[in-house]
Amino acid sequence: MTPVPHRSHADDLLSFIRASPSPYHAVASAAQRLEKAGFRELRGTDDWTGTTGGSFVVHGGALIAWYAPESAPAHTPFRIVGTHTDSPNLRIKPTPDTGSAGWRQIAVEIYGGVPLNTWLDRDLGISGRLALRGPGGRTDSRLIQIDEPLLRVPQLAIHLDRSVNEGLALDRQRHIAPIWSLGDAEEGALLRRVAAAAEADPDEVLGWDLMLHDIQPPGYLGAEREFVVAPRLDNLVSVHAGVTALVAAATAAEEPAYVPVLAAFDHEEVGSGSDTGAQSPMLERVLSRSVTARGGSSEDWSRALAGAFCVSADMSHAVHPNYAERHDPGHQPLPNCGPTVKVNVNQRYATDSTGIAVFASACERAGAPWQPFVSNNAMPCGTSIGPLTAARLGVQTVDVGVPGLSMHSARELCGADDPGHLAAILGAFVTSG
Fold first, then answer.
1. Structurally, what CATH architecture does the domain formed by 7-87+231-431 represent?
2. Which of 41, 97, 235, 417 has the highest count of CB atoms within 10 angstroms of its CB?
């Protein structure tokens, strides 16, 4: 078997994905790694005065982390890696107990752009967070992760639908309730199950943000195990690479020339319009506070922002061998040939020539390849947090991403080398010119 470069990084990525079935778990996994590297969590109600070194703020399914060298002036520019923690999936409704024809089922709502056929006939677990009644009228939040085959969305047998291979024979509104038992719908059955997983009493549960996940573990694929196959590659590949780059910058022998930042937003897959999304003032507020905490003025904040640069890292499309005509004929990225730089002149991506130059320079320093990506003119182009960050902060931004197949599927694919390439490039980007 041929050794695969960056295999240790890919192994670690798979561990990160296994521990991160929901945005809240992804944030917890990232926070754990940052704390191990010496970062400390700050809360909005804390006094940040004099704070230097590694810090991070958690807000629901989002995390902002940065490293401010002790000797760095307050106006030191930021080098921002923008990512997102959420992935398209099926999310459990507030009143979940339902059923039909003698089957007990769970009511779910579609989150994001889900290729529904990829969720059929898969063994599904439950993950997310519970809001619990705490002492003194307070509420507590507790994560749950049930990696057991609890649920399944069964496909209709081909004998009962001979047209199934002619298109997706699935009614988005009526036929996606997963089964999990026999018998009539029993009120509170799911509540009791998830409360037990959280070691809580059902009466303590005031609300939840729960979702389904495929319990098949991530792994490798291919004749030489040259591919990674896993759920939520979009966009945990980039979150993991951003954490890796930030930790490397904070623990390097030489202090970085910039203030490295990781911004891992939630709700990108549904437009980023929440208090934890890229359209919110969260990143702006945290970075501004980090400047004033180090004695900076409004002028220092303006200078730090004026010299800032953002790499928006999100998954990209590799050329599909069965549908090559859907891709631009001159831009057909392949796995294991490096991350792509995503260009769209209509600003669905925020990349321009100077952004390409900055990213290409980081690639050279990291000794890593990269590829250009442009959508086919006849196909609508996706977008990411890059344009939102550029518009919100006025910060120059370049959109990049690891190329893969089956984007938004319950199980996606990318090259085993590319996540390591991305981490190395981001490490070079956040530390030097």
1. 3-Layer(aba) Sandwich (3.40)
2. 235
